[in-house]
């Protein structure tokens, strides 16, 4: 993300989900219990777009409207009565719009699934760690929402209005019921669910880090994406770069911020997010520690030399 002169860049702040979600009165209902998050949205309008970083695996149901998702060089469009399952620790761009001819109604559900929940699911579905999985990754594909699934969604509607009176374990059982029902009806989805916890193949550390250098991915996220444990990721990273990953990533992000300060007119806050930092105050403090200048002073110093 670099450029010359007064080039402007698209720098919308990336939302981390599910923990960055906020409830909009009248449009969204969010259910949070013991780290499990369910979002229901029903709105009328022409739609919107944005970027989000998936902190948990995402199971997306669209009951009305269209929800287009892009990540890397992949893109899928989830339409009325369709669903898709996406793995965590990646940045996705989305465009969502209402249904033509139905007052532009957009109605979708998001289930954010933690690794702990998938571990419990693997246990009750008799698919423990010793069971052989497919040799290649299960493909991400659009699947239909059956009448059975539609009725399931209706069955958890009361939980949103009664969440203070419902036991956390009951909600978890309801989510396990959903996963088990999905997997029982679709063998490929069963494999995809199991592979979410542990990617099938190791990926190149260099490719994973370069792809995510300006995203809010944690070291645990990068380790997951590379198919390694956190300790193995740190060890293999050091063998390649002769530097701890946190230190190397911070340096690369500072270098990106320097580039943007020198060659764009973006506000410092936008540069903070574009370089992979999440907090402008933290970014300014880290930047000054590294360069001896605040971001604004660094830009002024560069301009004075031109």
UniProtKB/TrEMBL annotation:
Domain HTH araC/xylS-type residue range list: 203-301
Pfam families: ExsA_N, HTH_18
Keyword Transcription carried by entry: yes
Source taxon at top rank: Bacteria
Keywords: Activator, DNA-binding, Transcription, Transcription regulation
Origin species: Paenibacillus jilunlii
Cross-referenced SMART domains: HTH_ARAC
PANTHER family assigned to the protein according to its UniProt record, in alphabetical order: HTH-TYPE TRANSCRIPTIONAL ACTIVATOR RHAS-RELATED (PTHR46796), TRANSCRIPTIONAL REGULATORY PROTEIN (PTHR46796:SF14)
Name of the molecule in the record: HTH araC/xylS-type domain-containing protein
Record's keyword annotation contains Aminoacyl-tRNA synthetase: no
InterPro entries associated with the record: AraC_XylS_family_regulators, ExsA-like_N, Homeodomain-like_sf, HTH-like, HTH_AraC, HTH_AraC-typ_CS, Tscrpt_reg_AraC-type_HTH
